[in-house]
Each structure stands twice: as structure tokens, then as C-alpha cells.
Amino acid sequence: MKAWEATVRKSQAVARKRAKSIFATMTVAHADDTEVNSPVDGGDIEKSFSSGDVYTGQWQNNCPHGQGSFVWADGSLYIGEWVKGQMTGRGKYTWVGGASYEGQFKDGFFDGEGIYSGSSNDIYIGKWNMNVKHGTGTRHYANGDSYDGDWRRGVQEGNGRYAWHFGNQYTGEWKNGEMSGNGTMTWKNGNVYEGCWEAGLPNGSGIFRWEDGSFYEGVWNSDSKEQNGTYHPATEDAEDFDWEPQDVMIELVDCRVCEGESIPIYPSQKMLSWPTGQDGKSFKGRDGKTRSRRKSIDSRLNSGSETSWGSETDLTSEISNRNSVDGKEINEGLGNLQIDDWDESSGIPKNIRIRPPRRQGQTISKGHKNYELMLNLQLGIRHSVGRPAPATSLDLKPTAFDTKEKVWTRFPPEGSKNTPPHQSCDFKWKDYCPLVFRTLRKLFKVDPADYMLSICGNDALRELSSPGKSGSFFYLTNDDKYMIKTIKKAEVKVLKRMLPAYYSHVRACENTLVTTFFGLHCVKLTGSAQRKVRFVIMGNLCCTETPIHRRYDLKGSSLGRITDKPESEIEATTTLKDLDLSFIFRLRNLWFEEFCRQVEKDCDFLEQERIMDYSLLVGIHFPGNPSREGNQESDKVGTSPLSTPGMDRSSSGETPIKLGVHMPARVEQTVRSFETQLIGDPTGECYNVILYFGIIDILQDYDISKKLEHAYKSFQYDATSISAVDPKQYSKRFRDFILQVFVDDN
């Protein structure tokens, strides 16, 4: 510990010396002070904080602005440009271990052109977007490998060239960090494979050539049974030799893409920013009227310390006379502010009342009317998923989608050769397209054991309090991962019909926003009733440890699209609609581009399948939630999206974030000029949030009932305002609306 403290003190001393050699004479505070004499706006300052951090440089509006350096207590250092308290412009950040980044910053993130030099000589030179490699760039790995080409969301994607240190080289297309598409592999000995690739291996048509001119041409597959082709010798009298196409697969085992050095904690995860005197500015709304802006706080996590730019005595003086809130002791720091102190600067819109989220649904226990039905479902799932099955390829044959065969499994209470004894009633079970859904679960990276445990474990399912508009009932698993919905026969037909296209779509689009389906089943109760209950199992979009404070179901239509509830009665589980929405969602450029592309692809798919009446479900978490009703660990006052548990690893780490899941964003509050206005005028009031969103309810086709509904309502209302419209018109209206609600946060 003494050695480490000495290292930190030495690092700080060196950093201060470097900073003073760059900047002019500073106003120096006492080392133990947390306040300095207020500098003239635009002047220079040296400011020490109680955490041990030190800032030296230009100062304006009570925060760093201009050239300056910041030394953290752990010895890390930033030297470069600042804008309103944020590292923005050109600069250099150095970690204690020797790694460094030099290039462009924006709001504390690596953003633009930059060079990262790792402590183990791992170097990346290229473009960044919000701490993620994105664009063109070159990476030299510590083991001698190198990659030069396109990057997307932190991994190789697009066109690029990878050279291994032992001499092999691949040039071609990449996807999600693996060789996928058309490409050429050249071995050190001169052999060449040119053709199709998937997940790092030859897959599809391709040619393997030897240096002597002989070649093998055919269809390649990692499964030897699917492999077929023809060998062409260099000369007619050449002798056959012992070689198999699978030998190429074995040789490629060593041609793995290097993971490289992981980046230590990012500077954006360490900085904290406060109001910079910008409140009071005005803006013009869509109606041309001038409105005033509210001040807001954009707070960020400081690893091991909380550094505020403003005078600490000003902040603490507001707190010093308060030692408790509602009779409870409070800790030191900015979190001591009472609820009322946050009315103008918290991370929550003033007109929104946030209540602690409560758990949805009623547990189905013995005596519940659907208790036996739940047992039947769990028994059937355990039977279907638990059966041993051979490894499946993602390339499914058309016969896998055949739904004409009707195979029912009977579950008598006393048990049978294939089924266990149970305490429920006698019933029959049908599993639709089991191979397809088994492969879908594999595609969605769902572990069979975890899946079965979630649905069929010791914990009971929970039934949501009221059925949906269609009359369907919803059930949630105890861990909230999966939602089970009862559906009508017509919806089963729609899903079976669109299943081949659905499978192709979700396989081609890894970031698809459409509902994830994991199983389609039917329970047939025996006896006089002979009732059939059909189920579909889906992923729960809002399954997260981060509480969802607001959820919206958005379609882009206005007729009946409002929730008739006062704000005081709206809970976290209330699903609001289009005319309840008072926000515009602002996504960072990296995710906004991906969002636009995916909405277009998903809408095209649904339009081709003649689907309508779907919606975008959006869940919002307000990180700065000073809830009056109670405190939750993840909702401490003063936190931000970047300080939410698990947030930094996905937003600023090497692991790519999945579209629509735990996405950092900002919402801008809007005001409607008239009641039926779908999208209100922006007010300039912005808040940091975390978003969850996806397209749901995709099993309604434009059948005769919807056509009649459209015709009937068109006589009474504006045809563009009703939900039931032709799929082509619905798709256009939906995407136009969504791409106005979601905008690029430049």
C-alpha cells in the first residue's frame, strides 16, 4: 500500500509539472482546500478537490472551458480542450498502467479520429463513436496480428484485411467480428480459398486452389454430410492424393481473430459535470413562440470520487442545516439535497410523478382458476424442451416448417411410457414446428436448461391482472424473462404462415426489433369441454433490473390512442399511448443510424407478410429518480445513465450494445398545441434516460374483420387517424411516425 501511495503521489507530481509547463501562471489554492478564490471568467485556475483530484487550466462559468489538465487521485491524466466542463475537442488521456488515447473527444467520450496505445503495445488508429471503434481503422495487436478495414459498434464489420503473425491473410467481408460474406484466405504456403464464409469458416460455394494449379470446387459446410464438390488436378496424369475438404476447416482453427487488449475504465465513466450557468437561455418551438429553457444536470460517475465544478461551499451551505430527510439520516455529498431541491434540476420531468415500480401480475397458486392450465403448460414445456435432440444446423430444410402433421401427446395423471405422472387433469399437448423453435432459441442464444427452469421451475407463473384488448391472457415467468400469451386460432395460422419468413428475417437481422418467439404450443383439455388453449412464448421486452418508470405503446394513429387516467393514477405498469406521449427520443448518432435501418427492414418484412396493427413498445428509465415514495438502490439521487449498474460495460466498453436494450439516450419534453396533435412542439427540456424498445403484436393480418372495421370507422372519422388500415399504408404511417419521435442527438 505504501508503494502504491508513493506511485500515485509521484504520478500527480509529474502531471502537475507537465500541466504547468503547458499553461500560463495559475491561481493556486491551498492543497487541502476544496475552494479557490473565484477567478475572473476566462482566466486560469488550479483547483484541488477533497477526493484528491486536481484541475489546472482555463475556467469559465464555474467550470473548465478552454485548455486544461485534470489529474485523478488514481494517477490518470487528461490534457486537452474543455467545453462547459466536458472533455470536448482534441486531447490526450493517459492511464496509470501506461495506456493512452490521443485524439478527438466529445462530452468525455472518444469520438472522432483517435489513437489508442495499450500498455501491451496493442494499437488502434482510426475512428471512434462514443468510446466504440466505428468507421475505418487499423489495429495492430500485441501478438503481431493486424486488421485494416471497417469497424462497426466495436468489432470488424464491412470490408477489411486481417493478417496473422504466422503468415496467413484474409481479405474480404466481415460481420460481427468474424469472416462472413465473400472473401479470400491466403495461406503462408501459397494455398488459396476464395468463396463464401460464415462465422469464420467456409460456407457456401467456393474454390480451394493449390500452388501447382490444381483446385477443388464445390459447396462448403462445416458438416461433412453437407459438403460436396469436385477435385480438378493440375494435369490429367496427376496422381490422386489423400485430402479432404474438412482438412481446410481444421487448418482454420488457428486463424482466430485476436481479442486484443481491453480498454481500462473510460474517462467518460470518471467525469462529473454540473450546471454551467447556461439556464435562462430561450428557444423557439415549432409554433415560433419563444420559451425559456430549464437548467438540467448531466451527471457522470467518477470512479472512487465525486468531483463537482461549482463552489463546494455553495452546495454544502444549502445542505448544512439539514441532517435528515423524513427522519432518516443522510450521507455527505450532493445526494443530501432534499427532494424539493431537485424540482428544477433533477433527471425527471417536473410534471411526471414517479412511483416505485411494483411487480406485475398475480401469482397462480393452488385454487386459482388457471392453476391446472399452468401445470399443463409447464409439463408440456418440460416434455418438449427436455427431450434429447441432435445438434441442429441453422440451415433448416423446408420440411421443418411443415405444420400439416398433427401429433398430440397425451398426459394422463397416472403417467405413461413417455410422460411422467402428475397432479393435474388429463390433457393432450401439441408442439408446433419444434425444430424451428428449438433453432430459434439457439439463434437467440437461449440456454435450454435456463429456458426450462424459467418456465417450469419451482416458482409459479404470474398472471397479469387483466386480459389484453383481444381477450388474450398474459403470463410472466417468475424471473420476468419470458411472457406467455394465449392466442386465437387465427393468430396461430398467421404465425405458422409467416414462420419461414420470420426465421429468415431474424437470422439475417441480428438487431431486429420484432418480437422474439421461442415456442408455439396447444393444450387440449379432455372431457366434455374439449377446450383448446393455444400459447405463444415470447421474450419480455422490459425484463431488466433497471426499473421501468414509463412505458408507451406507439402506433402512429390518434383515434382512441389516449389513456383516460390522471397523472396521479398512472403507475410504472400503466401502458400509455400515442396521445399520452410528451417526449421526443434523442439517440446518439451511432445508434440512431442503426435504428433507422432496422425500422425500415422490420417494416418491410411486416408489410410483405400483410401484418398490421403492430406497435412500438418503449420503456423509459429515469436514472435521476428522487422518488418521494421510497429510495431504490438503482435510483439514487444524482446518478445518470452512465452510472447505472451494467450501463458502462455496454455503452462504452468493447462489447457491442444490442439495439433497443439498455440504451442511453436523452428525452426532450414536448407540448401539444391541440389535443389530437401526435407529436408536440419541443421545449428544450432534456433528460438523460435509459430506453428499452421493440415491435410487438405482429400476429394481426389484414383479414376481413379488419377490412370491415376500416370501412365502418372511415365513415365516422378521418381514415388516416384509425388503426385498421391496409398493411402498406400502416407500414408507411408507422415508420414515418416513429422516425419523427426518434431523432439524431447531434
TrEMBL record:
A biological process from GO: phosphatidylinositol phosphate biosynthetic process
Organism of provenance: Daucus carota subsp. sativus
Sequence segments annotated as region (Disordered): 269-327, 625-655
Ranges of residues in domain PIPK: 363-742
GO MF entries: 1-phosphatidylinositol-4-phosphate 5-kinase activity; ATP binding
One GO location term (cellular component): plasma membrane
Keyword tags: ATP-binding, Kinase, Nucleotide-binding, Repeat, Transferase
Stored SUPFAM superfamilies: Histone H3 K4-specific methyltransferase SET7/9 N-terminal domain, SAICAR synthase-like
Top-rank taxon: Eukaryota
InterPro entries recorded: MORN, PIno-4-P-5_kinase_pln, PInositol-4-P-4/5-kinase_C_sf, PInositol-4-P-4/5-kinase_core, PInositol-4-P-5-kinase_N, PInositol-4/5-P-5/4-kinase
EC number(s) reported in the record: 2.7.1.68
EC primary class: transferase
Name of the protein in its database record: Phosphatidylinositol 4-phosphate 5-kinase
Catalytic activity: a 1,2-diacyl-sn-glycero-3-phospho-(1D-myo-inositol 4-phosphate) + ATP = a 1,2-diacyl-sn-glycero-3-phospho-(1D-myo-inositol-4,5-bisphosphate) + ADP + H(+)
Biased composition (Polar residues): 299-324
Cross-referenced SMART domains: MORN (SM00698), PIPKc (SM00330)
Basic and acidic residues composition bias: residue spans: 281-298
